[in-house]
Amino acid sequence: MVEIKLHPAISEIPRSLWNGLCGTGNPFLRHEFLESLERSGSVSPENGWQPLHITLTEHNQCVGVMPLYLKSHSWGEYVFDWSWADAWERHGLDYYPKLVTAIPFTPSTGPRFGLAIEPERALPVLVEAVQQISARYGCSGWHGLFIEPHLVKDLKALALSTRLGTQYHWFNRNYRSFDDFLEQFSSRKRKNVRKEREKALLQGVELITLEGAEITEELLDQFYRFYQTTYLKRGMQGYLTRAFFSLLTEQMPENLIMVTAHHNHRVIAAALSLKDEDTLYGRYWGCLEEFDSLHFEACYYQGIDYCIANGLQRFDSGAQGEHKIKRGFEPIETWSAHWVETLAFRQAIDEFTREEEQQMRGHIRRLSEELPFRRDR
Question: Cβ(341)–Cβ(139) under 8 Å?
């Protein structure tokens, strides 16, 4: 008999236990990352992310953990369900609160639980648990975001709706250098990328890559200014607090990379990424001044350079951005899983996601045809 317990803070669960079950391979499921979000105030009940993390216990031993949040809005998720919330409202029902299993503000596919028992035993227990928790808190349902693709079939078998999306990732096919990578492009598209890279240098911008302890508090102060300025240009506030970035450098320095852009002896932009043993994750960007093609250089090309130099196999560049296609980032599938309490809405969402999946597959095929690579490669 597996028992479920809820925890209103990740700090209630020992770090050694959480990381022992989840591993530390993916940086976003690490206890340190989730705790940094909570300790910094980036995630809290006050800002609409109430932690309700799950532990599974069998014979008085913890055999599973899963992040879970009670949400009062849909911000910071990157799997957009605003139209679903509107449908609930039109029928006089409340879409919020809802339950979400995700890494807050992090649209990156990865593991969403850690287990010491067989997944085929644990998955039905977890699904039943979130359904019971949903009823307890008066939620409209539960949503698992950016789940691993191999779980899709099993979740469908448990009567959940699954939703297909797409992102753009770069893959290292044993490239020896950036030029070697570009040799796979058609001639015209290769020239376009080279011209784009030259623009930053011609404007007198110097780019420097820093790792771990090289990322100082002074640099973080500058970066955070850039980060917030970029959001303010869109009339928004950045989701993450300044304290979050300090906690990351304190708790997970080995996972951090920062590309800084310098002009006239001062830092004018920066991109902060995370990494693990085989993947670079482009995450946070900000700038004070606009320079032609600087965003592409700092956020994409410098990351590709880093992957090639350090033998990383993939570059997960974050959400959205079809402009990445012509720069060699390939469309990949992303998945989410959904269960809602109301049967009529459950059927409607199932139908919606099936139709959306057909459209998305066609979209991915069309995007794949726009990739810059030579046909004979």
Answer: yes
Instruction: Copy the structure tokens of residue 263.
Output: 């002009």
Give the predicted TM-score (pTM) of the model. Answer: 0.96
The CATH number corresponding to 3-165+333-369 among 3.40.630.30, 3.40.1010.10, 3.30.70.1060, 3.40.50.720 equals 3.40.630.30
Residue whose tokens read 């690490």: 30
pLDDT tens-digit map of 141-157: 999 999 999 999 999 99
Distance between CA atoms of 334 and 152, rounded to whole angstroms? 10
Q: Which superfamily does 173-312 belong to?
A: Gcn5-related N-acetyltransferase (GNAT) (3.40.630.30)
Place of tokens 């691993």: 148
DSSP state for residue 205 in the 8-state scheme: -
Q: How many whole angstroms separate alpha carbon 193 and alpha carbon 368?
A: 18
As a whole number of angstroms, the distance between CA 263 and CA 298 comes to: 13
Q: Which of 310, 269, 340 is nearest to 172 (CA)?
A: 310
Q: Are 31 and 55 in contact (CB under 8 A)?
A: no
Helix/strand/coil for 247: helix
Neighbours of 197 (CB within 10 A): 17
Query: What amino acid occupies position 37?
Result: L
Q: Write down the domain spans for the chain.
A: 3-165+333-369, 173-312
Walk across the sheet containing 141-147 and list its strands.
49-51, 69-71, 98-101, 141-147, 330-340, 161-171, 314-316, 279-287, 266-275, 256-263, 206-211
Average pLDDT, the chain: 96
User: How is 308-348 classified by DSSP, letter by letter?
Assistant: HHHT--EEE--S--GGGGGGTPEEEEEEEEEEESSHHHHHH
Q: How far, in Å, CA of 353 to CA of 209, rounded?
A: 41
